[in-house]
What does this fold into?
Amino acid sequence: MTLYVALLRGINVGGHNKIKMADLREALKELGLSGVQTYIQSGNVIFASADNEALLRERIEQQIYKVFGLTIKVIIRSYSELRQIADNCPFTEQQIAEAEASSEGECLYVSMLLQEPAAERIQKLQTIDLQKDQFHIAGNNIYLLYQKSIRNSKLSVQVEKLGVPSTVRNWKTINKLIAICEEMDRNGVK
It folds into this structure.
């Protein structure tokens, strides 16, 4: 059994695609997933399963449609993949501190993509003037460092144009998900 985090895209945002986390947990338990937990309302589900990521994504997306009538994209990362994301942040402490000083709210995010974007789309992104915002692509993850705000950033708009389903989480959420996985691992949930 492997610990996974399913990251649902676009639920409970602006009154759209509403799903109560208690209902989501119950719906996913019906799939035979072990130790199902959720974290905050934005659709973070931690669980254990022996199935592979592709099968899990398909089954979870189908279950959400069946139970809630919503077509939601699901991005899955294993516990070890989340740890790698956290351990390999490409930005220095100084860069993050400078961004925090000028940012309105959170400044460090990770956009987790279903797959790596096409090379020509990455090249196009690299040519755009993003002001002082920065990004770093590492496989199917993009680290995002905002100097002002994620809301009004050209970078946010351009990441959406990479043509790959994705979902974004801030650094605090990434670290909280890792902590939940660590606790589940210590408690033998697998």
In short: The longest strand covers residues 2-8.
